[in-house]
Amino acid sequence: MTDQLVGDPAAGRRTNILDHLDHRTPGHSLPGALYTDPEVFETEIDLLWRRRWLFVGTVAEVPEPGDYLTFDVAGSSVLVIRDDDEQVRAFHNVCRHRGSRLVAPGNGSVGNLVCGYHSWTYATDGSLRYAPQLSPDIDRACLGLRPVALREVGGLIYCSLAATPDGDLDLAADQIRDYLTPHRLDRAKVAAQVDLVEEGNWKLVLENNRECYHCEGGHPELTCTFFPTWGLSEDQVPDRLRADHDRYLFAEADLMRRCDELGIPHRLVEDLVERPFGFRIQREPLDGVGESFSIDGSRLVGRLLGDLADPQLGRCTFHTQPNAWIHLLADHVVTFSVTPLSPDRTLVRTTWLVHEEAVEGVDYDVEALTAVWRATNEQDATFVRNTQLGVADPAYVPGPYNEAERHVDYFVRWYDAQIRSEV
Ligand code: 3BY
Ligand code: FES
Ligand code: FE
């Protein structure tokens, strides 16, 4: 396989991963070195994280001109800002004078972007507006902030650090947009955001997310509403979960009927393996009252998103390779972005979005809104930490996936294909 890559400048770097991938047993977890080796990690940064479309946030996080967020990944800091003409743009967070970071990590709002070092000043569209004592011979038009590729799909913002990003997100966008727009992220606001650093490799974080094999025992709060048979086909449902699954089928039929009446798409669209922007989107029912991620399934926000009138829309779940999962409900949206920090540390950023006119303390309570996923994230962080410790142990031998883990297998196959990809 490596012979085909001769002449490809990335070939030498990717062999350290291909040596492991070429010798692994299909349908089994990855060799330990792929979760621990610093060289493997650096190769992934080059071949995946600097080349693919990454979920960075939502338009609700930059609602007004001058509002910005930062997204730090792969040694780059991306500054996403809404310009004075309301367009959301992305730039490298690097001053064009001598390279200082322009803004500190986090969110904020500016009139102009002023570098703290020598006061070079950029408009929100990235153009250089002012540079004290800069020689008139120097062309200011060439000294605007360097842009980063950005796409907005139904209010979700994706960026790519690639010089020539792949076109796959543009192809996927038409399949995705109609699922997202009923939730009107352009009319939503951030109710809460939590950064959690998990002590494990980024692939363990994604793999953990891509199965619910661990949900039944591992997520007591989540499984009040998230059916633990997620990802199983009919014949794989174990007897002890049969009653749960029968409720799922009943709720699913009801949800499909209501979605069809409202003209809201719900059918599964899934292409998680072959394409650079691997994704899966589907609207599925929630257990209990069927409205939200609460203990009894009742809504957590009085004011529904956008113009939605029906609170029982289950969850529209959108998984994307390599770094996001998102749940869109009638009353709120919760987004998760993943960024690798080191071979054994990964940032998971969770953001809860509600209608922009929902009033905290009246329409929702932040503690209650965030309780289930804060607990679930902590539980998942423990699974990831324990797995990182185990796969780093010389005794670790990759073990077999079962059918409930087929999305983990899809993720690993996507990873294999993208490492081999020459674009
Ligand atoms: O949040 C999610 O979408 C995934 C799916 C199954 C397990 N995990 C909760
Ligand atoms: Fe930004 Fe000098 S490095 S103004
Ligand atoms: Fe989990």
Automatic annotation (TrEMBL):
PROSITE patterns according to UniProt: RIESKE (PS51296)
Pfam families assigned: Rieske, Ring_hydroxyl_A
Keyword Cell inner membrane: no
Cofactors named for this entry: Fe cation
Molecular-function annotations in GO: 2 iron, 2 sulfur cluster binding; iron ion binding; monooxygenase activity; oxidoreductase activity, acting on paired donors, with incorporation or reduction of molecular oxygen
Domain Rieske: 53-159
Keywords, in A-Z order: 2Fe-2S, Iron, Iron-sulfur, Metal-binding, Oxidoreductase
SUPFAM superfamilies with a match to the protein in the record: Bet v1-like, ISP domain
Domain of life of the native organism: Bacteria
InterPro entries: Rieske_2Fe-2S, Rieske_2Fe-2S_sf, Ring_hydroxy_dOase_asu_C_dom, Rng_hydr_dOase-A
Protein known as: Rieske 2Fe-2S family protein
Lineage, top ranks: Bacteria, Bacillati, Actinomycetota, Actinomycetes, Propionibacteriales
